[in-house]
Design brief:
With about 325 residues, this protein is an alpha+beta fold. It has 10 helices and 16 strands. It has 2 domains: about 150 residues, Gcn5-related N-acetyltransferase (GNAT) (Aminopeptidase), CATH 3.40.630; about 120 residues, 3-Layer(aba) Sandwich (Aminopeptidase), CATH 3.40.630. The chain is about 30% helix and about 30% strand.
């Protein structure tokens, strides 16, 4: 079987997304529909993997904004990696990653930054790429810690979360109305500006557009107090995982533990929907070197445990 690497262009967009829809290690983040919202923000360097003339894999990637000699899989999303249906396992994955590295060398790049897909996002075991990275001499340069619940084997709720849930259920009304997105975004933006002098990665316009593109995967769950949104979560969901992409709460919401009610209802809904995991997201700062332990403990008290998000660097001039 012959592996061929082809640079992506827009003529492959439909075939790419159709391929991702059936891949066990793909979510909406690797689709062209999602990546397309970035527009011209990044110089795309995505690749198509062909095997004996048939589409065997896709690799979303773009040039680093800070280092034009580095390519990242993908700088605009949380994780990337080689998407495949299982044909690129074992030695074929080593061959594929070797060929991808060689293609980038010929294109003038000196480093590949690889954001591995966390195992919970795959519907079938798909970590052949991690072994291939090891074989090619890649170094793990970052590790973030997420907190996730395995919905069929959930750890007990902490006593503090039990008390918070009881208080919240008496004080809030829950809603999944997507029309509340603007109110939720206002709270999120205010919190980030006040606490971190920052703003959400996605603007309200961007997240509204993405929600329209993925209405079944991107959804909100809010807590209302006296008719106004005071807390909520925006989810990016996949067949195996409900993922809390954004979490926000006002001072009034914190006073009544409003997020406890939002998370409790969403966790129940995720299990009923057939998801395997409920992912609260990472709690890291400074490139993974700092763990916000208070935030991580808050998440873990709902019955979750740690899931690693791993990042690798492959020096392309030394690939073997």
């Amino acid at each position: 079987m012959t592996i061929e690497i082809i640079p992506y262009d827009d003529t492959f967009a439909s075939a790419w997304d159709t391929f991702c829809a059936g891949a066990p290690n793909s979510t909406i983040l690797q689709t062209r529909r999602f990546l397309g919202y970035h527009g011209d923000r990044f110089k795309d360097a995505s690749l198509i993997v062909m095997e004996s003339g048939k589409l065997a894999g896709v690799f979303p990637a773009a040039q680093s904004l800070s280092d034009p000699q580095s390519v990242i899989s993908h700088p605009g999303v949380t994780y990337g990696g080689i998407v495949h249906h299982g044909r690129l396992g074992g030695l074929r994955m080593i061959e594929t990653l070797t060929d991808i590295a060689a293609w980038y060398v010929k294109s003038g790049y000196r480093r590949l930054q690889y954001k591995a897909v966390p195992h919970i996002y795959a519907s079938q075991p798909s970590q052949d790429d991690l072994y291939a990275l090891f074989r090619l001499g890649a170094q793990r340069v970052r590790c973030d810690l997420s907190c996730s619940i395995e919905l069929s084997n959930r750890r007990p709720l902490s006593e503090r979360r039990r008390r918070g849930l009881k208080k919240a259920q008496a004080a809030v009304i829950l809603s999944s109305d997507p029309m509340l997105l603007g109110e939720l975004w206002a709270i999120l933006s205010q919190n980030l500006a006040r606490k971190h002098d920052a703003s959400p990665v996605h603007s309200l316009e961007e997240i509204s557009m993405l929600r329209e593109l993925f209405p079944q995967q991107i959804m909100i769950r809010c807590a209302l107090i006296e008719g106004a949104v005071e807390a909520g979560v925006l989810f990016f969901n996949s067949p195996t995982v409900w993922h809390a992409q954004y979490i926000a709460a006002s001072e009034a919401a914190y006073a009544v533990s409003a997020l406890d009610a939002v998370f409790d209802a969403a966790i129940i809904e995720a299990r009923q929907a057939g998801a395997r995991y409920f992912d609260f997201g990472t709690s890291n700062e400074d490139g993974g070197k700092v763990l916000n332990d208070g935030l991580y403990r808050f998440k873990s008290e709902f019955g979750g445990g740690g899931v690693a998000h791993e990042f690798y660097d492959l020096e392309l001039m030394n690939e073997r």
